Amino acid sequence: MQTLFSWIFVLLLFITGNVCDLSISPKGPVSVEALVGTDVTLSVSHAGVPHPEVMWFKGSLLVAKWSVGNSSLSGVASGVFKPELTGSLTFMNVSLRYNGTYTVEMNHIGEEKVSATFYLFVYDIIMNVSLHTDPGDAVEGQVSFTLYYSTMQGEAKEVRWFFNGLQLRNGSHYSISGKNLTINQPSRNHTGRYTVLLTNPFSSETQHWNITVLYGPDMPVLKVSPTKAVFVSGESLFLSCQAEGEPPPSATWFFNGESIATSSTGTVSLTNVKTSQSGVYTCVMINTRTKAKLQRNVTIIVYESPSGEPLCSVQAVNGSAALQFLCLWPGGAPEAQVSFPGLSVNASGYGNYSMTINDIQSLNGREIICKAEHPLIQTQCSVIPRCIGTAPLSRCIVAGGPVDFLPVILISMSQDEQTLVVIHCSAKATPQALVHWIKDGNHLQTGPKYQISTNTTQLFIYDFNVTTDLDTYTCTAINPLGNETVDTTLLGPQISNSSVFRSNNRTEVTLTWDVPLTSVITGFDIQMKGPELSSPSQPKLSIASDFRTIQSKPASARATTVSGLDPECTYYIRIIPKAGRTAGEQSEQHRIGPAAGLSGAAIAGMAAGIPCALLVLLIVLAFIYCGRRDRVPRYPVPRAVEKSTLNPHRLLRARLKPPPEYRHQQPERSAHLPTVNSSVRMATTV
């Protein structure tokens, strides 16, 4: 194209008459590409002047100067440039340092200077292409990430970038400049394979780079297994924590600010959980490459039922003028809610709740229910306020059935043989009654002789003396709903009844006995009169003329067995109750032995009875005889005469006695049986 322009220019000069002016024109392209190590010529042609002066510049630097027709160069290195007769310049074994813009100027004396410009591009074979990143990691959310290339040899004329096989162009996400590919605000979507393609007129080279954009952790996903709103103490559960990220983030669980054992998969196992493990559990996810953190919480609730059952009670307060109802159901998580709906609709409490009622007149015998509610269980208990005593209903201050009021006597003896008697007044009342003790009209107080228990239900009588301390003791129990009084008369040691049972072989007997309920007894002596008891080691028998003690029994004993009796001998056995060292009234004597003949007294009685019987018989016969002798003949008379002459008193001439009135006879009370207050039931225990 340039040659064509040159010829047109010469033709115009010829037409205008200026064909003798100096001119210059490139021969071939002005943009020349060359391979390193080869020769390349920047060709020009001139006209109008046969031998102009030629000067070549690289930029503003003169690199060669000569005159056309003279091939000698001046001021330039030989062996690098070769001048041509046409004014062209040849580069020999061109190197990369000769890349640049070259200008050729021609002039002649009296002529204007003419010039032409060339562009020389020297390329080498592209080799050893490598890719690099700045910064080292691509992180989601950062401002930019740059991928650039470098070569060990050769330069590219054209650079093209590809992402997963698709060519990239400048835009909002990517910027291509020189050797750099910049990713603007990289995201996980920019993860993939990047390729650079370098080409020049003499070679091409491709290189790949896999870029992973780091991100996360995303919002953790927490799971609780099994899925329950509330766990019960003793159950097991699992916590898991998962989150998206590159690289996959690691999970660590925390509870109360302290880390807990976590598996590599982010799972925590909680077995046999307790209420202390209720609370907020935090999962912290960490990206180990970017150090980015994200956490999330989950709340675990562990409930535990209160222990046992709720306990209801009532007690007197305000000087026994009011009743305080208590409902106790301790423990549990959370605490149980308790209330007395029968006393108040709205009032309630937790765990240990009480309510005081001043109007107690209508509460006697009424069941008061405590409603106990826990998230895991609902239950209830109740208490019934009651007045006291075995007295009639009228003795209670308010209406309601009385309850038992039972004194109990306990007796013991110390090592120094001092007797301790305890009277226990068990007043079955609700609330618990306060007991006052009275003797001979005087209130008893705690001292050396008497002591009253803390709950006032027991009276301790120390160093009990049968002579001075056998008396009537009164206990009065009082609670806000009523009061009751009962007397306890202590009796000396005595036996109420006894009996004996002989074995079939008649060598052994069993003796049983009872005692009055309020009799003060510390032991029993079993006494016998008769031959000595025999045994295999002592077969010899001897006869004792008086009672002797053969056994000693404690106060709780009510039976004993006596062995070694001779079936052919007669024995007498009795029981002696004791109170300390004082012996009480003996029991009846029991005879043990073979059936005996008639005694002398019996024979004497029979001898005296026979004559008496004969005399009575004669008297009866005499009455019969006299009655027949005085009878006169009777003749029929009118009934009126019969009635007037009949002497009714003649019917009683025999003087017979009327039959006795058996219904007025009562069996005689045994002299040794005590009189016990019939309104009191008592039991003796040692």
TrEMBL record:
Q: Which SUPFAM superfamilies does the protein's record reference?
A: Fibronectin type III, Immunoglobulin
- Bias class Basic and acidic residues marks the residues at 658-671
Residues annotated as region Disordered?
A: 658-686
Residue stretches spanning the membrane: 601-625
- Does the entry feature the keyword Ligase, yes or no? no
Q: Where is the Fibronectin type-III domain?
A: 494-597
Q: Does the keyword Oxidoreductase apply?
A: no
Signal sequence coordinates: 1-20
Keywords in alphabetical order: Disulfide bond, Glycoprotein, Immunoglobulin domain, Membrane, Repeat, Signal, Transmembrane, Transmembrane helix
Q: Which Gene3D superfamilies match?
A: Immunoglobulins
Q: Superkingdom, according to UniProt?
A: Eukaryota
Question: Domain Ig-like, which positions?
Answer: 220-299, 407-491
Segments of skewed composition (Polar residues): 675-686
Q: What is this protein called?
A: V-set and immunoglobulin domain-containing protein 10-like
**Native species:** Cyprinus carpio carpio
